[in-house]
Write a structure and sequence with these properties.
- By secondary structure, the protein is α/β, with parallel strands linked by helices.
- It folds into 2 domains: 35 residues, no CATH class; 238 residues, Aspartate Aminotransferase, domain 2.
- It has 11 helices and 12 strands.
- It is globular, with a radius of gyration of 20 Å.
């Protein structure tokens, strides 16, 4: 029997069975070594079996794995403090979930309730996930076609063209969602001035700016967040993939006044913010920050 018997023909599959990994390398069941350029689609950000992450998970397993967010937990508290410390100024509150698509779904809901507007504007070439709401903001027709009609009032505008973007904004536009550097459709870097102009447009029109940094964030571009290259801060930022070093986690970072509009029970997650993932998140942030400082110091 093989996995295909049980999982169906959903994923593109390669004839390799991976058994273990270390750093940037993985080994199959026959002991053949590979350089892992896939890293779980961007998840193993600090390498497979990163020592910090492994120790943090082992220690947390000895304490407790899951604590729902209706109760307090010190591991979660420490993770949130570390995450906010490295986050763009003004994004001072966090909704914890389990994946990128969940992070985007939450952003849609927060923006809709805060603005009272249902219009959504995304960019050509965008990829924001495959759940119904995030799929509605994903541009590629091959993902969308089988599931239409999707969430209504979504418009797409050419990436890098601020004039076209302005013409697509109307009185019902509640937010614009942008990947500062697009990934799924090819590595498309925002032209100089584009993100700053979107920020200005959003401020003029009372529209929220959402950055999807699920693929571009966490140091991948030489700065902690890709938006920093253009000195542009969003109102909401979506994170996931590598934030917990390979353990499932997503986070939606939000201005405090935006999150304040959400009433108890309107948004929640059973697994979001569990101590096991948070422990991995703490270790990942430390690996990205402290290890890099040590490495740089050794070169002086």
């Amino acid at each position: 029997m093989t996995e295909d018997e049980f999982m169906g023909n959903i994923y593109q599959r390669f004839p390799v069975t991976i058994e273990r990994g270390l750093g940037a390398h993985v080994w199959d069941i026959n002991g053949k070594e590979y350089v892992d350029c896939m890293v779980g689609y961007g998840v193993a950000l600090v390498g497979h079996r990163n020592p910090r992450v492994v120790k943090a998970l082992q220690d947390q397993l000895e304490k407790i794995i899951t604590v729902h967010s209706s109760l307090y937990n010190k591991t979660r508290e420490e993770f949130l403090e570390k995450l906010i410390k490295i986050s763009p100024k003004g994004l001072s509150q966090v909704y914890l979930n389990n994946s990128g698509t969940e992070s985007v779904e939450a952003a849609i809901k927060f923006a809709r309730k805060f603005t009272g507007k249902s219009g959504m504007l995304a960019l050509n070439g965008s990829y924001h996930g495959k759940s119904l709401g995030s799929l509605s903001l994903t541009f590629n027709p091959k993902y969308r076609k089988s599931f239409e009609p999707l969430v209504e009032k979504v418009s797409f505008s050419p990436f890098g063209d601020i004039d076209a973007l302005r013409s697509n904004v109307n009185s019902d536009t509640g937010f614009i969602i942008v990947e500062p550097i697009q990934g799924e459709s090819g590595i498309h870097v925002a032209p100089d001035g584009f993100l700053q102009e979107i920020r200005k447009l959003c401020d003029e029109k009372g529209i929220l700016l959402i950055f999807d940094e699920i693929q571009s964030g966490l140091g991948r571009t030489g700065k902690m967040w890709a938006g920093e290259h253009w000195k542009t801060t969003p109102d909401i930022m979506c994170l996931a993939k590598g934030i917990a070093g390979g353990v499932p986690m997503g986070a939606t970072l939000v201005r405090s006044d935006i999150l304040a509009c959400i009433s108890k029970g309107e948004q929640s997650s059973t697994f979001g913010g569990n101590p096991f993932s948070c422990a991995a998140g703490i270790a990942t942030i430390d690996a990205l920050t402290q290890d890099r400082l040590v490495e740089n110091a050794s070169k002086l």
